[in-house]
Amino acid sequence: MKLWLVRHAQPLIAPAVCYGASDVAADTQATLQTAQALALTLPAGVALVSSPLQRCERLVHCLRGLRPDLAYKTDARLAEMNFGCWEGQRWDAIPQADYDAWVADFGAHRFGGQESVSEFMQRVAAVWDETQRQRLDAVWITHAGVIRAASLLAQGVRQVTQAAQWPSDAPTFGGWRELQV
Length: 181
Description:
Number of strands: 5
Structural class: alpha/beta
Order of helices and strands: EHEHEHHEHE
Number of domains: 1
Strand content: 5-15%
CATH architecture: 3-Layer(aba) Sandwich
Largest sheet: 5 strands, mixed
CATH topology: Rossmann fold
CATH class: Alpha Beta
Strand order of the largest sheet: 3-2-4-1-5
Oligomer: single chain
Helix content: 25-40%
Shape: globular
Radius of gyration: 16 Å
């Protein structure tokens, strides 16, 4: 089974701002370019599953305009991690003490008060497990954090307790990663 993990196009938000679960739009032209590239890449009938955030949903709609054979569903579990009170704030404006608290208890601490890495991993793992059981090629239209979590799941890692375990790499905006699972 093949799983394409697709990251939305460049969001329309200032650089260096924490936007995680915020529902911000993505650049229209970049979204269309990503949809065009995906339309040429994806096999017929592959299942699409999308984050409900508009930067992902818009990409799905553009892609389906080019490839109406691709059915899709929305799954809220593919939304980006929720950074709570830090959503919409510049990363460099977040107090160092808050970063320190997160790193000290990386898996369980709710950075921003909303969601921990462990909770985030559990919801992504639930979609991962469903996708595995279906044994069909699939495409997730999603976010960098979800792609990082899925990359860990592909390696058999279901729990992250230390910041050093969290992957630093993810596809660029509008890019994707293909996994054989």
